[in-house]
Amino acid sequence: MKWFDNTALTLVIIGAINWLLVGIFRFDLVAFLFGNLTWLSRVIYAIIGLCGLYLISLFGRISAPGSHS
Predict the structure, then answer these.
(1) pTM of the prediction?
(2) Which one, of 15, 22, 17, lies nearest residue 52 by Cα?
(3) Given its phi and psi angles, is residue 59 left (phi above 0), alpha (psi -120 to 50 degrees) or beta?
(4) C-alpha triplet 20, 22, 26: angle, nearest 5°
(5) Which DSSP letter does residue 67 get?
């Protein structure tokens, strides 16, 4: 399952970089590449959002007593 954690983390980092671009330059990279709220861009936003929700579980796994990664 470590590959899934790494993939989810990579996608969330890409999403964070996209939000940084939106916040600083008002430039949405996903909309630029795939269209403004097309079905494909909405799927990408949804996948990144789901990865972010999944990564909430990292808090429990990182701080679990006796867990050794």
Answers:
(1) 0.81
(2) 15
(3) alpha
(4) 135
(5) -
